[in-house]
Amino acid sequence: MKRLLLPTLITLALGACAVGPDYQRPAMDLPQSLAADARPDARVDLTWWTAFNDPVLDAFEQRASVYNRDLLAAIARVDEAAAQLTSTRADLLPQLNGAAGGQRGQPSSLLPSSGLQPGQKVIGEQYNASLQASYELDLWGKLRRATEASRAELLSSQAARDTVALTVAASVANGYFQLRTYDEQLDIARRTLKSREDALVLRKKRFEGGLISELDYRQAEAETATARAAVPLYEQLVSQAETALKVLIGASPREIYQGEVSRGKALSTLNVPPTPPSGLPSDLLLRRPDVVAAEQQLVAANARIGVARAAYFPDITLTAALGSASLALGDLFTGPAALWSFAGDLTMPIFNWGKTGAGVDIANARQKQALASYEQSVQNAFRDTRDALVAQQKTAEQLVAQNTQVSAYTRTTHLARLRYDNGYSSYIDVLDSERSLFSAELDRANTRLARLQAAISVFRALGGGYSQPQDAGKPAG
User: Fold this and answer.
1) What residues contact 313, with CB distance under 8 A and at least 6 apart?
2) CA 410, 412, 418 angle in degrees (round to 5)?
3) Domain total for the chain?
4) Where is this region: Disordered (predicted)?
């Protein structure tokens, strides 16, 4: 009968139902699709930055994926969660421990229990060796729920790592495009300065020859100084953008201080990926790593309710020991020295001033917090996507208008200079047109950047990107 006890209890443990609620994804009011009819085969392109077709950017992204410190820390957190799952899952299995010991000594002859006469000395020895096995019957599913929670936390940490990877990739792309924007604006400032310095030389000669007033000359001098002041400003911004990009790609301190940053294509020649193709299902956003991480935290919190509820029920632990003990080391492994034991322990709370119930309330409250966080992450996903799609469309429209504006101001400046040189208008007209052209060119560079950043935001909002034809994308303009 006793031989049937252990197999029977193990069978009951394996077949028992786990207490606590089983996880079900919360129902949410989602739109049918992000563009047109949903297509279930839509997928995320993990190397979405290659759509910009800039080999230098590709190299930066590759290096960041290996050396970025935030990403390395996130990978270490995944390793920690994986080890935690292994530790938790081990509680489901029998535990086996070995023990061995020996002692040699003399008891006090003054103690009656020693059986010795006063002053009598006897050296005694004792040796033992044993194997001890223990197993907790998971009748109520406490250990299985704990393992379920640890597994969900591992998945959450993996999704959090993917979130960090996506954030780093977006930051590298944004940082690289910001650097190229400052490069362009520095070039505009230098070209403007060169043009104004050349014009100032002519103005000075005409002033000294009495052909123009000192007012015209001083105004030209002031505008030249304005352009000259812009050059070191953009040189500083370029240097700061280079340093920020070096940190993102994991450069060493020496590289940060001394290294050079490669340049690729000009912003005006970069491909700008189109808006997402029709057929992207709305539940594509539920695959975003931050949404997945939030959902797995909800799964874990849901499982922790079962762990807390299981505290209402008794814990049953079976233990067994097999070994030997002897007063002489040579007799330790002989038949008469053998010993064994088998025991079962049952413990359960009787009265603990509401501590068990409070534990359940804590688990329920944390599950509600995780639910709210998950729902908010879904809301944020759709908000980010809508904002990014609108920004991509509107910045493209804005860039078209600004291209026209720059062309118009370029022609206006040329005509204003001709009219002034021929005495048909004042120098104020020339200054106004030059200022407008300088400002319009700088603004256009910022709009090119905004258009590229909007495309990055679309990729990021979709959790990494989407499939698209190989020939998709147009120059930034």
Assistant:
1) 19, 139, 140, 348
2) 110
3) 1
4) 96-115
Long-range contacts of 407-411 (CB under 8 A, 24+ apart): 409/433, 409/436, 409/437, 409/440, 410/437
CA–CA distance from 246 to each of 30, 47, 52, 241, 320 (Å)? 40, 20, 20, 9, 60
- Tokens matching residue 357: 């119930």
Residues 79-93 have pLDDT tens digits of 999 999 999 999 889
Residue 231: domain span: 2-103+121-475
Return the CATH number at 172. 1.20.1600.10
Residue type, 459: F
pLDDT tens-digit map of 39-48? 555 566 788 9
SS3 235: helix
Is residue 113 one of the residues assigned to a domain? no
Q: Which of 320, 305, 288, 430 is nearest to 361 (CA)?
A: 305
Which of these, 45, 62, 275, lies nearest to 168 by C-alpha position? 62
Q: For the chain, what is the radius of gyration of the CA atoms? A: 38
pLDDT at 286: 84
In a domain, 134, yes or no: yes
Find out whether 315 and 346 touch, Cβ atoms under 8 Å: yes
Residue 232 burial (C-beta neighbours within 10 Å; 0-12, 13-18, 19+) = exposed
| Residue 229 main-chain phi, psi, to 5 deg | -70, -30
* 8 Å CB contact between 363 and 307: yes
Model confidence band, residue 111 (pLDDT cutoffs 50, 70, 90): low
Quick one: pLDDT at residue 472?
A: 44
44, part of any domain? yes
The model's confidence at residue 36, banded by pLDDT at 50, 70 and 90, is: very low
